[in-house]
Design goal:
Keywords: Signal. Helix content is about 40%, strand content about 15%.
């Protein structure tokens, strides 16, 4: 029984290390809600579209969340998005 527990623990650590070492394949863009002007960062790896449908894509795709956050900050400062 102890060998099985050690084997499961080792397998769990190996899987955790593999997942942590693999690069994330996410990309992001801003969406702007038409009724409020509120901008939101949208993760393109989400398989669905935002709900409700009253939005439009407000930016180009960027590779990291930090880049998308910088774009949102610039859009807020320029007045093209509301808080």
């Amino acid at each position: 029984m102890r060998r099985i527990s050690m084997l499961c623990a080792a397998a769990g650590l190996a899987v955790t290390a593999f997942v942590a070492a693999s690069p994330a394949e996410a990309s992001y863009h801003l969406i702007r809600w038409q009724d409020t002007g509120f901008c939101q960062i949208w993760d393109e790896s989400i398989p669905t579209t935002p709900w409700p449908a009253g939005y439009h894509r407000a930016s180009a795709t960027v590779p990291t969340f930090i880049d998308a956050l910088a774009m949102k900050d610039a859009a807020l400062k320029s007045g093209s998005c509301t808080w």
